[in-house]
């Protein structure tokens, strides 16, 4: 499996988001570049660029970098896929 990590600075985050057709609005929220509509994370919450922790491999499921979001994401998407 390919894992890509990146530096946690604003310019790098904006570059990565741009690859996915996303940008950051004046309030710091991640948006669709084409429409300006704020994107929602896997749990339905808007995500700021400072909260951005990654994108699920093979999808556009955005994840906040706080521990609660990471544990919820792991439980919902990764733990279930590895169950016997």
Number of strands: 4
Largest sheet: 2 strands, antiparallel
The SS-based structural class is alpha+beta
Radius of gyration: 13 Å
Tally of contiguous helical segments:
2
- Domains (count): 1
Contiguous low-pLDDT stretches (5 residues minimum) are: none
Structural topology:
Blueprint: H1 10-19, E1 22-24, E2 30-32, E3 52-55, E4 62-64, H2 67-79
Antiparallel strand pairs: 1-2, 3-4
Could you characterize what this model shows?
This protein has 84 residues and is of the alpha+beta class. It has one domain (10-82). Helices cover 27% and strands 15% of the residues. The protein contains two helices and four strands, in the order αββββα. The chain has helices at residues 10-19, 67-79, and strands at residues 22-24, 30-32, 52-55, 62-64. The strands form two sheets. It has a two-stranded antiparallel sheet with strand order 1-2. The protein has a two-stranded antiparallel ribbon with strand order 3-4. β1 (22-24) and β2 form a beta hairpin. The protein is globular, with a radius of gyration of 13 Å. 11% of the residues are buried. The model has no long low-confidence stretch (mean pLDDT 80).
């Amino acid at each position: 499996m390919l894992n890509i990590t990146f530096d946690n600075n604003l310019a790098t985050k904006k570059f990565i988001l741009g690859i996915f057709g996303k940008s950051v609005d004046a309030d710091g929220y991640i948006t669709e570049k084409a429409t300006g509509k704020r994107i929602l994370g896997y749990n339905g919450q808007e995500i700021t660029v400072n909260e951005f922790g990654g994108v699920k491999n093979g999808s556009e499921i955005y994840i906040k970098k706080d521990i609660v979001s990471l544990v919820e994401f792991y439980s919902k998407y990764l733990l279930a896929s590895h169950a016997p």
